Amino acid sequence: MEEINLLAEKLCAEHKLSVSEYEFLIKNRTDYVTEFLRQKAVDIRKSIYGNSVYIRGLIEFTNRCKNDCYYCGLRKSNLNCDRYRLEEKQIVACTDEGYELGYRTFVLQGGEDPFFSDEVLCSIIRKIKQNHPDCAVTLSVGERSEESYRALFEAGADRYLLRHETADELHYSKLHPEGMSFKNRMNCLSVLRKTGFAVGAGFMVGSPFQTEKELSEDLKFIETFQPEMCGIGPFIPHRETPFAREKSGSAELTCFLLSVIRIIKPNILLPATTALATLIPDGRERGILSGANVVMPNLSPLAVRKKYELYNNKVCTGEESARCRVCADKRMQSIGYQIVVDRGDMKSF
Ligand code: 5AD
Ligand code: FES
Questions:
Q1: Cα separation of 123 and 85, whole Å?
Q2: What is the dihedral of CA 188, 287, 294, 108, to 10 degrees?
Q3: Which of 46, 70, 211, 281 is spaced 20 to 30 Å from 180 by Cα?
Q4: pLDDT by residue (tens digit) across 45-99?
């Protein structure tokens, strides 16, 4: 049999490959291998999660950010970004609305905004957990101190998303300004785990300067770090960033990597991301059909949605939360899956 097919079989049997094997797999993938791995990923996913899809209500509570990542539309150097910050009561109101819509996980995502001190964030977390003790709170608020992570965990936060962005230190330095460090980011992920959070890593597909080599390092990182969650989506340029003229990542490669990651870690929580849905109209469906098992519809107030612009033409910025919820339902039903009212913790297998 061809080498590429044997490698795909090896991945399925061992749930891991060497970095150079991952690289070979990505570079030499054929339609046949892609479909083979997709089917395996779907089978594995079904054996653990059935046809259930977990939903997370995403609340983009501040677009202010002290960082200046070259790829992101919220970077501080973007003076054309209309900045906002939600108040505690607005955030809590989003979760109350979300609860009625069937969400049992709320993701609080924001730029690195110093206004949200530990005190301010902990108060919000406590309030949400007090109103909805049956819900999980996920934070996605960037790099903070160990002490801060501990305070947030003790206030009741359950999970933490911090994409590693790239597992290659040199590549990391090409995506971020001096002063942002790869080592600190990786250290934050370890600290988050040690603190007790369910941890999410992740990366963009097709970010500038990325080759199959960097992607294979990302896969090795997922395989060795074993995060509970992994967010991957295509890079999409934002017009007000240094990468404005770079090209978008590939939806096909993103879907291929979703399948590979499902096989590497069978029970991982893997979202079909908004970036994928922005790049192709059936991105959520394609993501699920490639091995993802989570969707994260937007729960932010309509008035601020367009302002949380990580990349150009982000979808779902004009929809009411209730409509996004119905839309997600319809999309999943159309491919034979069912959104469930559930916290959606990672299952053991
Ligand atoms: N294209 C795709 N994804 C992006 N992100 C930030 N900017 C972009 C972009 N231009 C992703 C990053 C970040 C997450 C919140 O959004 O991976 O961690
Ligand atoms: Fe928001 Fe489809 S999920 S409009």
A1: 16
A2: 50
A3: 211
A4: 999 999 999 999 999 999 999 999 999 999 999 999 999 999 999 999 999 999 9
Averaged pLDDT for residues 30-48? 98
Q: Whose CA is nearest to atom 3 of ligand 2?
A: 324
Report percent pLDDT > 90 for the chain.
99
Measure CA 48 to chain center: 20
Residues touching ligand 1 (Cβ under 6 Å) are 71-72, 163, 165, 204, 233, 235-236, 238, 275, 310-311
Residue 216 has pLDDT above 70, yes or no: yes
Ligand 2 binding pocket includes 324 (Cβ within 6 Å): yes
Distance (Å, whole) CA 105 – CA 244:
33
pTM (predicted TM-score): 0.98
Which atom of ligand 2 approaches the CA of 324 most closely? 1
- pLDDT value at residue 1: 67
CA dihedral defined by 294, 58, 166, 236, rounded to 10 degrees? 100
Q: How far is CA 49 from CA 54, 58, 127, in A?
A: 9, 22, 31
Taking a C-beta distance cutoff of 8 angstroms, is the pair 190, 221 a contact? no
Residue ranges with strand state E in the chain: 52-55, 57-62, 105-110, 136-140, 159-161, 198-205, 229-234, 294-295, 338-340
